[in-house]
Design the sequence.
């Protein structure tokens, strides 16, 4: 009996979602993606970043395996830090329509300069809950 080897996952720009299990509650999902890579559009050399995603879901949540494959799809694409951060945010917002989403891209040093790009989305009618300060 011979077994066929399984195909490894492939990068994909298809983002999958699932039903928010608690759509009546504001809560925050935080995802840290420490292995983001894309290419410098000027030199073709790799750029490395940690992506920090924070969002308050509405009706849908981002499925993590599809997010992993989505991020992988940028590995061979040339993009400026500002452009790729905003493009990722736009795609994530389109996929799950969150109440609020913030993407912080912390790029590793290039030419002695670190770059952090922060992009945000907020539904026009959503108001964040007041901060709770405990003694």
Sequence:
């Amino acid at each position: 009996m011979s077994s066929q080897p399984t195909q490894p996952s492939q990068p994909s720009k298809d983002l999958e979602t699932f039903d928010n299990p608690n759509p009546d509650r504001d809560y925050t999902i935080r995802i840290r993606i420490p292995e983001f890579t894309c290419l410098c559009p000027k030199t073709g050399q790799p750029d490395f970043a940690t992506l920090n995603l924070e969002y308050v879901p509405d009706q849908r949540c981002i499925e993590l395996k599809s997010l992993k494959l989505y991020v992988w799809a940028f590995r061979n694409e040339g993009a400026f830090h500002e452009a790729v951060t905003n493009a990722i945010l736009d795609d994530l917002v389109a996929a799950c329509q969150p109440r609020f989403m913030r993407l912080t891209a912390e790029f590793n040093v290039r030419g002695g300069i670190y770059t952090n790009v922060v992009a945000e989305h907020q539904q026009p009618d959503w108001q964040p809950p007041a901060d709770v300060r405990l003694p």
Notes: Helices lie at 64-72, 81-96. The mean pLDDT is 94.
